[in-house]
Amino acid sequence: MSPNSWRVRLLEAADVLRIAAYWHDPAQQADHAARGSDLTKLLPPAELAAVYAGEIGQDLRTASRVTFVIEWGGEPVANVSVMNLNTQRDTQVHCHVWRPEQRRRGIGSAVLHDVLQTIFNTCPVTTLVFEPSRHNLPINRLVQKCGFRPVKTYRTQPSPMTRVMEVHRYEITREALRQAQAACPDAG
Prior knowledge:
The chain is globular, with a radius of gyration of 16 Å. A hairpin with an 8-residue loop joins strand 6 and strand 7. The longest helix has 16 residues. The strands form 2 sheets. The chain has a 4-stranded antiparallel β-sheet, with helices on one face. By secondary structure, the chain is α+β, with helices and mostly antiparallel strands.
C-alpha cells in the first residue's frame, strides 16, 4: 500500500471498542504475553473501553493521556497512546498494530515520524520515552530508525498492564525528530 494511504487522527468513539477487542481477542493473547503484557492485569472489556472513551474530547493541554489512531487505506489499524502528559513523570509512548497480518508491512516506518510530529505539535511535551521489551526486535529497530536515542537497558514495569521485564529505554526530543526527518526526507 502506498505511504500516502495513511493518516493520523485523535481517538474517536468508534475506535474504543476496536481497541478493547484487540486486547481481549483470544487469538492475540499469546502475542500480548510475548510482548510483556500481564493478562491478569487487563481490565475487563467494558472498563477498558471506558478508559479510552474518557480521553475523547479532552483538552490536550491538560490531559494526562491521549490516544492517536492510525488509518491505513481508510481503515483504523493501530493506535499510539501517549501517557503521563502534564505530569511530573516521563511521557511514555506505546504503539499497537491491532492485527498480526498488518504487522511488518511498513505501517510503522511509514507513519511513526508523522505520529511523533503530531504528538509534539499537539501535546505539551519536550521529550518522549519509549520502553519496549528488549526481546521485541522489530519495534526496537523501528524506534532507532525514527530517531529515538538508546538511553539504557534495565528492568522495569513500563505500564500498568505489563509485567516487570527487561526493556530498552529510548528517548526522542523535538529537535532529534527534526534531525531524523531531515536525514530521511521520505518519512513523515
